[in-house]
Amino acid sequence: MAVQEMTPDAPRLRRWADPWSGGAVLIALVVLAPIVAVLGIALFPTDNIWPHLISTTLPRYLSNTLILMLSVGLVSAMVGTGAAWIIARYRFFGSRWFEWLLLMPLAVPGYVGAYALVDLLEYAGPVQTALRGVMGWQSARDYWFPEIRSMGAAILVLSASLYPYVYLLSRAAFREQSGSSEEVAMSLGAGALERFRRVGLPLARPAIAAGVAIVMMETVNDFGTVDFFAVQTLTTGIFSVWLESNNAGGAAQIASVVLALVILLVTLEKVSRRKVRFFTTARQHRPVERKPLHGWHAVLAFFLCFVPLFVGFLLPGGVIFLLALDNAGAWGDQALFDALWNTVSVGGLAAIVTVLAGVFMVYGARISGRRLPRLLMPVTTIGYAAPGAVLAVGILIPLAVLDHRLADTVEALTGHDIGLVLTGTGFALILAYGVRFFAIAQGAADAAMGRVSPSLPMAARSLGRTQGQTLREVYYPLIRGSIGSALLLVFVDCVKELPATLLLRPPFGFDTLATRVHEQASLENLPGAAPAAVLIIAVGLVAVSLLARANR
User: Fold this and answer.
1) How much is the pLDDT for 225?
2) Between 367 and 283, whose confidence is greater?
3) Is residue 170 within 8 Å of residue 207, measured between CB atoms?
4) Where does 371-437 have alpha helices with state H?
5) CA distance 9 to 394
6) Partners of 287 in beta bridges
7) 367 CB-near residues (< 8 Å, 6+ apart)
8) Residues 303-313: pLDDT tens digits?
């Protein structure tokens, strides 16, 4: 009987043939493909308009984007860090409520806040109408009022919507600081502001930098707010060059500039955390005791916490809710129910696919023993930093080419025209959601599996369980809470996502809640946009409640 000789490469080939290892690498490549496609299209466009962009619109797009990013980042850092310090260091009337209420603006997307602010402060709005009635003014020429649709208003709305990212991270950093350092500073005669500047702020700087980086990336991603306020940024430039000028290569070139900004932000944030490190030297960590405030100090603390909550949540939420009540007939509009169904079905399916892919990749990277899956895992998180408009460029253009070739091939073989299967359905939108929010699913799965004792899966394997059975019978019961949270968070982000949805939604009247709000507001029909906006805020409140519960 002939004995088959096993080559040295056979074990390596078997490991690569392992579906868990190969699947993890495949998922990573799918997540990274749109970003690679954007760079490829930008470098080798069909029609190179770099010279035209550089000499005309690109400087304006870039300067507006940088001003918006830096301004929103600065305001969010001041508001979020200040509120976090007050909540972490002092006790006053309402402080326990403010601890989670300050997260509520996350439930209101920036574009919804923009629509509410314009409805309230525009010439025909209640504020200016009341001023004219009280003062006896007849027209806008009789008085001065700040321009609502402007860069300043966009900065205000986006800062009010995004500061909770800084607040959440800096509050955690302030809480983790040792009470010993605070007491030493007090014994040396340092006042409250001096302790904040010399002790609290330096220790929390890495967390604040991480929060500001997230705020800036979300600012770059925004389309609805800046479009409504007529602020031309790189994101609006992608829409303009692609949809109005019908130049996909030019859109990809602008998208590559956005991507470069995002990568720069991520790099700076990583470097800041690497260079600034502090360690607790005490054997037993003792948290800082919160000092009670009374009198005008308590009033001031209450006011400083209430203002961002009012501007970011109570004001826009109240305006939108009143508009929805006044336009009760819009709740019976069939188009609203269609948009709701589209949102739930596409967002829900995207959340399920994204979380399953995240779990599969993390588990595959853990059991494969290969370096490549582990190296690719952190790289896949870049999708969360990439704006939706950038991902749309990297997804739609290659998919459109593949879709037409697939349809032509099937028609040549069968004589039947199957139409556009990939871009004519919700497939492209689901793929964009998955790439954009894959980092949430992957991070939740990685953290949850990291808490599982290695002895449990080893025991299961010793009892003859396969790798799939070990995942199902050992890991899943222990991580299902984290998986459920990731499902909800991904779904909520899908509901609020606007730029990718506008560019990738199927043709012929496919609307989600986000696109319906944007289109109705673009037609100056804010009452018609209000019901869909209320539903978006309601979904966002569920996620914020979960976030507040997890960060108690």
Assistant:
1) 92
2) 367
3) yes
4) 371-379, 382-385, 388-414, 427-436
5) 37
6) 178
7) 20, 21, 467
8) 999 999 999 99
Reduced to 3 states (helix: H, G, I; strand: E, B; else coil), residue 290 is coil
Q: Do residues 200 and 86 touch, judged by C-beta distance below 8 A?
A: no
Q: What is the DSSP letter of 366?
A: H
Return the amino acid letter for 323: L
**Confidence band (pLDDT; 50, 70, 90) for 9?**
very low
Residue 276 has pLDDT above 50, yes or no: yes
**What domains can be seen in the chain, in order of their start residue?**
46-280+294-326 (1.10.3720.10), 333-511 (1.10.3720.10)
The predicted structure's pLDDT at residue 188: 59
Report pLDDT digits (tens) over 491-549.
988 999 999 998 888 877 789 999 999 998 888 888 888 999 999 999 888 878 877 77
SS3 451: coil
- Residue 62 is encoded by which pair of tokens? 């870039």
**Closest Cα to residue 529, out of 368, 316, 383?**
316
| Angle made by CA atoms 128, 162, 207, in degrees to the nearest 5 | 145
The 10s digit of each residue's pLDDT in 435-481 is: 999 988 888 888 888 888 888 888 888 888 888 888 888 888 888 88
Element (H, E) at 161: helix 151-176
Residue 386's closest CA among 1, 32, 15? 32
